[in-house]
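Hey, I was hoping to borrow your eyes for a little while. A protein chain has come my way and I'm curious about its shape. Take your time with it, there's no hurry, and the full record follows here:
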Amino acid sequence: MITDDVKRADKLKRMFGAYSDEVAVTDSLHTLEPLLHRSYKLAIIDLAPANLLRALNSIREKPAYREMPIVVESSRLRSDSGFAGVLSKYRAMPCSLNDLVTLVRYHFACESDKPSPKPIL
């Protein structure tokens, strides 16, 4: 999870419940780079629009993360209409806080319950 609001990160981790221990959090783009040398299945971005593009670029420029799902908490973007086409370019999905929590829980449940996940939609 990449966030510029530690309180929001704590709230999200609490909402993830049992899966919160599997979430790595960075509160700065400066500390993102070292985290990108580890393996992740999903990225959650909760940043102000000014930092969003840099975070998306940092993730997508790494070959290991070119296909990784990226979820962007959408309430932070409502005031900036300039991101309408940007998220699709980076294959990032905007979603509400509740949808984000549902997707994360589902993603972790599928990872632990292999063999074949059922669609959520």
Summary: The longest helix spans residues 97-112. The chain has one domain: 2-112. The two ends are 23 Å apart (CA to CA). The beta strands are 2-3, 43-46, 70-73, 92-95.
